[in-house]
Amino acid sequence: MKRLLAGVLLVLLCACAGKPPLVVERSLSGAGPEGHLVAPGDTLYSIAMRYEKDYRELARINVLDDSYLIRPGQRLRLSGSPAPVSASSGRRPVLVVKSPPVVVANKPKPSVSVTPVAKNPPPVGKTPSVVTAQSPASASLDWSWPANGALLARFGSPGLAGKGLDIAGRQGDSVRAASDGMVVYAGSGLVGYGKLLILRHDDNYISAYAHNDRFMVKEGDSVKLGQTIALMGASGTDREKLHFEIREGGKPVDPQRLLPARE
């Protein structure tokens, strides 16, 4: 009987030891799960890229403020309306709406003639138009090729390569920023991408650089077009190459639509 119990215990221990951790690998296609459990190293941008979502939409759904800060163990919703937040939690950002300036007409002085000001106040009952800075369109961003090698795969090819371009190279070749931007992710949290860098260029465009051997920048760094941001490698793949993507509103677009023609 003791031998039987010992055998059962051994089987249970082996099963537990071989049990994978409770981390469900999410689909890179964006289809499937409705939520994501934040892991160490995740950023809102890497999660948005994983599911082909717009990071701004994820921020809106999860009621994140403009810092886009998330924490390990936090569960993010991937679709739906903004989650209700209790008034006592203090986590919901406060939207401050500025009212148009109130124009008070000065009483004219009897002996002084008042010259009209060139900028007329808005008509009574009308809200003055507010000029806001527009997000730069792709035409206003300067783009350049992130590496010099031959094209191994183009946009639309089967598999992960079809989300962007695969560019050949050698170990240690420079990987360059395709446009001015900020590093919003540097890590290895997306399966299939190896060591991955993500740059944010404006509110609508990000670019991704995968399979690096070494990062030359860190999260939060501002980078300039043509700056070396990484050294090429073969992390997460079978040969030295750069997998390069440009995403517009969270969706992959053909980089060759934006990059200058090669001579």
Approximately how much helix is present in the residues?
Answer: 10-25%
Query: CATH class of one domain, please?
Result: Mainly Beta
Q: What distance lies between the first and last C-alpha atoms, to the nearest angstrom?
A: 80 Å
- Write down the secondary-structure element order: HEHHEEEEEEEEEEE
Structural class based on helices, strands and sheet pairing:
alpha+beta
Form type: globular
CATH topology of one domain: Glucose Permease (Domain IIA)
- Count up the helices: 3
Radius of gyration, in angstroms, nearest whole number: 26 Å
Unreliable stretches covering 5 or more consecutive residues: 7-31, 86-105, 107-136
> What is the typical, i.e. mean, pLDDT?
77
CATH superfamily of one domain: Glucose Permease (Domain IIA)
Outline:
The protein has 263 residues and is an alpha+beta fold.
What does this protein look like?
- Helices cover 11% and strands 22% of the residues.
- The protein is of the alpha+beta class.
- Among the domains are: 28-81, Membrane-bound Lytic Murein Transglycosylase D, Chain A (Roll), CATH 3.10.350; 141-257, Distorted Sandwich (Glucose Permease (Domain IIA)), CATH 2.70.70.
Secondary structure layout plus pairing:
Blueprint: H1 2-17, E1 35-37, H2 44-50, H3 55-61, E2 75-77, E3 151-153, E4 165-168, E5 174-176, E6 181-187, E7 195-200, E8 205-215, E9 222-223, E10 228-232, E11 241-248, E12 251-253
Antiparallel strand pairs: 1-2, 3-4, 4-11, 5-10, 6-7, 6-9, 7-8, 8-10, 8-11, 11-12
Structural key phrases:
263 residues; Membrane-bound Lytic Murein Transglycosylase D, Chain A; 10-stranded antiparallel sheet; 3 helices
